[in-house]
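Chain X:
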Amino acid sequence: MDIDAVVGDVGSFDPELLQLPELSPFALKASPQIAEDLYAQWLSLPQTGRLVKSLIDDATAGIPINALGNSSSANAAGSNSLPSMFQAGSTPPLSPRSSSGSPRFSKLKTSPSSLRSPLKVVSEPVREAIPQFYFQNGRPPPKELQEHCLSRINDLFGGHMDGLQLHEFKLVSKELCKLPTFFSSAIFKKIDTSCSGIVTRDAFVRYWVDGNMLTMDTATQIFKILKQSDSNYLTQADFKPILLELVATHPGLEFLHGTPEFQERYAETVIYRIFYYINRSGNGRLTLRELKRGNLIAAMQHADEEEDINKVLRYFSYEHFYVIYCKFWELDTDHDFLIDKENLIRYGNHALTYRIVDRVFSQIPRKFTSKVEGKMGYEDFVYFMLSEEDKSCEPSLEYWFKCIDLDGNGVLTPNELQFFYEEQLHRMECMAQEPVLFEDILCQIVDMIAPEREGYLTLADLKGCKLSGNVFNILFNLNKFIAFESRDPFLIRQEREDPTLTEWDRFAHREYIRLSMEEDGENASNGSVEVWDESLEAPF
C-alpha cells in the first residue's frame, strides 16, 4: 500500500479521527484547513510510515488489528499509541485544578453518564406487547364466561345423554343463546347438518362455544345463523323458516293454523316490510351492516315476549298485514294476484294522479318483481303502499323523489314540480275546489323545505325536513293535499298525544277498524258470525 495514496485522500478525512489530545476537536472543526495540514504533516512522520507498513503486513498475514492501530507484529512492538506531531515537552502544561473545589469535577464525578457524548448513547426501545385484536373466527370467550356457559349446557343437556330433539331445543335458544324462541329450528338445523333429528351436547359446544358464537353481538349471531354458508348477505328466503316457525308457535297467531295460505302471506308480508325498511341499497341482499343499523333485532325480541302480536308495530303486526292484503285484494278485481294501472288508479278512492301512476309503472322508483309486462305483483304493491302511506320515512322519500325527478339528475326543478301539479290543479277545478296557482304552491314548498340552494330541491333537503312528505301529497295526492290544507285539529291532537306512532301506524289502525266493521256488516247481512268465511269475495 502506497503512503502517498493515503496522503492524497486527506480532503475526505474526518478531523476527529486524528485523536490529537493536544488540540481541541472543536478548533479542528472550526478550521478544516488546519486539520488537513496537520494530517498531511502526521503522515509524513517516519513513525507513521513504519506504523502503516506494519498494519499492512499484519492485515496481509491475517493478524487482528485493534481500533487504535496497535499492531501485534514485531515491527510494531514498541508502538502502543499513535505518534504525535508535537515534540516531547513542546506542549504547554495545563493549569492545575483542585479536585475538591472544581464544580465541573464534582459534577463529572457524581454523574459518570455525562462523560459520554449524548450522540453516542443509544437507548433500547421499549417493547410493548400489542394484544391480538383480530380473530378470523370471532373473539374467543373469556375463561369465566366459557365455564359459566358450559355449566348451563350441562344443566340443559343433563338427562339427555343422546341429545335433544327439535321440540326440546327451544329452552336452549332462549336460555343459552339469548335469542327468540322462533330461532330454535334455524339453530337446530345449523348444528344438525346430517339431519339426524338430534343435537348432542358436544355438537352444540362445538358450534356455540368453540365457534365463538358466545362472544358475538346479537345481530352477528342472527346473521350467521340465517345466512347461507357461502354468502355474506341475507336474502328473503333466509327469513322464511323463522317466520313460519313464528306463525306456528306464537300465541297471537294461533287463529291462522287452519288457514295455511294466509300463514304464507303473513310471513311474506313481514319479510317484504323488513327489506323495505332495512335493505337500504334495495338490491335484495341484506348485509350485516344494514342489519345492525336497523331496529329488526329489537322487534324480534319484542315479538317473542309479547303475546299480542298486534302490539308489535314494527314489521310483525297482524293488523298491518291485514290492511295491506285487503287493500291489494280490493284492487285486484280478477284475483290473479296482479294489478295494472287501471287497478292502481282506484287506490285511496282515486286519490292519485294518472301521471304519478304512470311513473310507478315505468318502474323508475323500483323494478317490479312481477314477470308480467305492465302488471304489479304483491311485493311491488307492499313497497308502493308503505311509501304512499308514510311519506315521512326515508325509503318513501327516496321512492317518490325518483318518481318526480323526470330527468334523473338528482334534483327537483320548478318545471318538474309544475308538470305533476298541473293535473292536481285540473282536478281541483273539476271538483269545484278553489284552485291554488302553482306560483303560490312553489313559494309554500320553498318555505316549508328551506332548500340549501335556491332554484331546486335535493333529496338531502327533503330528508332534513319533517314536513317533506306533504310536498309529494301536494303534487299528486289530492285527498291528502286537501286534508293538509284543512289541518284537521283532531288528527293534530292525535299526533301530539302519541308522537312515537308513525303515519303508517295511524293509517293502518284506522283502516283496520274500517275493514273489520265492513267485515262484521257483511257477516251480519249473511246471517253468519264466522269471520273467516272463504265463500266471501274478500279473503277474510
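Chain Y:
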Amino acid sequence: MNNVYKLHVRLIKTGLQNDPVSLRRLLLSFAAAAPASLPHARSVFARVPSPDTFAYNTLIRAHAHSSPSHSISLFSAMRRDGVSPDNFTFPFVLKACARLRIGHDAHALLIKLGLSSDIYVQNGLISFYGSLGSVAGALDVFDEMPERDLVSWSSMISCFANNNFGYEALGLFQDMQLVGNLKPDEVTMLSVISAVSSLGALELGKWVDAYISRTGLKRTVSLGTALIDMYSRCGSVDDSIKIFNAIPVKNVLTWTVLINGLAVHGRSEEALKLFHEMKNTGLKPDHITFNGVLVACSHGGLVDDGWRVFESIKTDYGMEPTVEHYGCIVDLLGRAGLLNKAFEFVDTMPIKPNAVIWRTLLGACVKHNDLKLSEKAKVKIHELDPNHDGDYVLLSNVYGQVGRWDEKANVRNSMREKKVGKKPGYSFLNEGDMVQEFVSGDDFHPKSNEIKQFLISIIDDLRLDGYIPFTCNALHDVEDEEKEQSLSFHSEKLAVAFALLRFKDRRTIRVIKNLRICYDCHCFMKHVSNKFDREIVVRDRNRFHHFSKGSCSCKDYW
C-alpha cells in the first residue's frame, strides 16, 4: 500500500499525474492493493479529466469483489459519459451484479451492444447466472457457445456444484476431458470436490483424490483443505486426517476444517487437542475456528473445556464473541442438562439472543423433559420467529413424552390454523451414479412396497433382541400399534432397509438426512448394526452418527 502512495507522490513531483500512461500504471497499482487502496483510487480517478475504457475497467475490476456497489456506480458513470464498455468491462460488472443479486437485464444489454458472443463475456454470464441460482440460464449460455475454454467448463461445473446438482457437475467434468480435451486446473478441481462433498459420496471422493495424484496436480493449501473437508463430509474423517498430515503447509482454514470435521464426527477430545496444537504453531484462530472447537466441546460434553475456550476468545485474543459463539455455550450447557444455568447465561448475554439461541434452549428442554422451561423458550421464539415448524414439533414432542396428549393435539391444531407446515423428513444414499431418495411415510419409491415389507420384518426380528420402538414422539394419542407404524417408516429406516436389500456385500451403509435423527431411529440403527453386523453412517442436520456392533460414535450424547 505504501508503494502505491509513493508512486502517486512521485508522479505529482515529476508532473506526470495527468499523463495517460502514468495514470494507467497508477490505477493498476491501486487495483493490485485493493481493498485498502480503493478510497484513494476513487479520489484519484475523480481528477482524471477524460477517463477512457481502460481506466473505467480497472476501477470496476478493483471494486467488483469487495465493494460491488461502487462497481455498478462506475459502470453507470461510464455509460453516462459516453465511454464504450468492451468485453473486459462486463465480466466484472456481472461479478458485481451477482454479489448484489441484481442485473437481470444485463444479458439483454450485452446482446444490444453486440458483446454477447465474446468468450470472456459468456464465461462471466455463466458465473452470473450460477450465482443467482439460475442453472437453466447458465446452461443456455454454455450450450450456445461455439468455443469453450477451461474457464467456460469450470464455470459451468461450479454452477452445477453450487446449486446442488452434484452428479451433473461430475458428468460435465467427464465431458470436459472427453469432448473438450482439456486438463483441469485447481479451480476446476475445487468445484469437483465441492460437488462430491454435497453428495457425501465417499467412493467418488476417493476417485477424485486419486485423480489429483495421478495427474500430478499440485496439492496447494486450498486443494488440500478442500479434500480434508470433502472426506469429512463424506463420513471418513480418518481420511481427512491422512490428507492433513500429508500437507506440508497449512493455514488457519486448514486447521479449522479438520477441527470442524472431528467435532461433527463426535471426536471431541481429538478436536480440542488439535486446537491446542494449532495454537502452538503460532497461528491465530479466527471466529470460525472457535465455533468449531465449541461445537466439539458441546458434542462431547466437555463443559469446563468449552467454558475455557469461550473465555479465551476475549481474554487471550482480544476478540468479541459472536452470537454463534454464545449459541454454542447455550448448546453446551443445554446438552449437559444445566438448563437453569443456560437460561441465566442467555438472560445475561451482552448480545440480544436470536431465535436460534432460544430454539437451542427449547431442544435441550425437550431432551431433558423440562416442560415448564420448554414453554418459556417457546414464548420467546414466538416473539422472534412465530412460523418455524421445528419449534412446534419440539414442543409437541415434549408434551408427548409426558403423556399430555391434549396439549400435544393443541400444538398440532395451532400449526394447522397458522398454516405452518411440517418439513418432511427425507434421506438419500448413493448407489453408483444414482441417488436413491426416501421420504418419510410416502410410497413414491418404485420399490416402496418391497422396502416397507422388509422393514417390518426387520423390526419384528429386532424386537426379539430387545428393540422397543420409542413411541412418545408419534403424532397422536392413539394405540401403540398405530404409533409404532408412524415411526416405522421414517426416511432413514427406509434407506437402510433398501441398502440391506440391495447391497449384499459388506460395504458401509451411508445415509444423508435433512433433519435431526430421532431417538427411535437412533435406537433402531444401533440394533441393525449389531443384528446384521454392518456399519451404518448417518449424516443428519447436525452431525455424523457412526453405528457399529450395537453402539454409536456419539455415545448416546446428542
